[in-house]
Specification:
Blueprint: E1 3-8, H1 10-14, H2 23-38, E2 42-47, H3 63-87, E3 92-96, E4 105-106, H4 109-117, E5 121-124, H5 135-145, E6 150-155, E7 176-178, H6 179-184, H7 192-201, E8 205-209, H8 215-220, E9 227-230
Helix pairs in contact: 5-7
């Protein structure tokens, strides 16, 4: 794979703290991505916002406003993580689907692909720019737009299970599953809209635990212990 989109869950970025940033975790991610970039892989990144805000759990705030807060949480995440990446020696650029003053660049496919070809790691913040679309859906959409070879889904858990492993200790992890089976069984790997986008556009996914040692590099080098989602 020469071009991938890496989706980082906000919760995973928080590490054991469960909220905010765990700098050691973020530096560890940056060092792994640098290894890929040094090997010639083009990397785009989307972060979730769950380490700051999970709007769908609020019963008092309008859904549109809650989702807008979530979009801004991902902008904060991308600005922070992109600067950690710069600290370890990479060039980066953050793109958003809406204007954020001088903080970010306005997204276009041409600008994003040009930045990748310049050797930059690019960050897609702000989701799709619209409410009712998750960061999973935004990540799949951007992966399709930049013609990525696959989407790497780095989560707080280490793959896709037949039930929630936090609730069911006997949950069984899939080594490989089709995106159609994910949809049919309503498995919560990504939301339904993101799953259907993957299916229609033949975008494969590799789902794994971010907090496992060297998990991003291992995934790219074939030492994969998560769940492969085929199309």
């Amino acid at each position: 794979m020469k071009r991938v989109l890496l989706k980082l869950s906000g919760e995973a970025l928080a590490g054991e703290k469960k909220t905010g940033f765990d700098e050691a975790t973020c530096i560890g991610v940056a060092k792994q991505v640098k290894q890929l970039v040094d090997e010639g892989v083009q990397v785009a990144i989307v972060t979730g916002g769950g380490n700051f805000w999970r709007g769908r759990t609020s019963e008092t705030i309008d859904r549109t406003k809650a989702d807008q807060i979530g979009m801004l949480a991902t902008v904060m995440n991308c600005i922070y993580v992109s600067d950690i990446f710069r600290h370890v020696g990479m060039k980066t650029e953050v793109f958003t689907p809406f204007v954020c003053g001088a903080f970010t660049s306005l997204f276009s496919k041409d600008a994003a692909v040009a930045a990748l070809e310049e050797g930059k790691v690019i960050f897609f913040a702000g989701g799709t720019g619209h409410p009712y679309f998750s960061t999973d859906t935004g990540a799949v959409l951007r992966a399709i737009e930049i013609e990525a070879d696959a989407m790497l889904l780095a989560k707080a858990i280490d793959g896709i299970y037949d039930s929630d492993p936090k609730v069911n200790p006997a949950a069984v992890k899939y080594e490989e599953i089709s995106i159609q089976e994910v949809i049919d069984q309503k498995l919560a790997a990504v939301d339904l809209t993101a799953s259907i986008l993957c299916l229609e556009n033949k975008m494969p996914m590799l789902v794994f635990g971010l907090n496992e040692e060297n998990s991003i590099v291992n995934t790219m080098q074939g030492k994969f212990t998560g769940t492969k989602v085929t199309v």
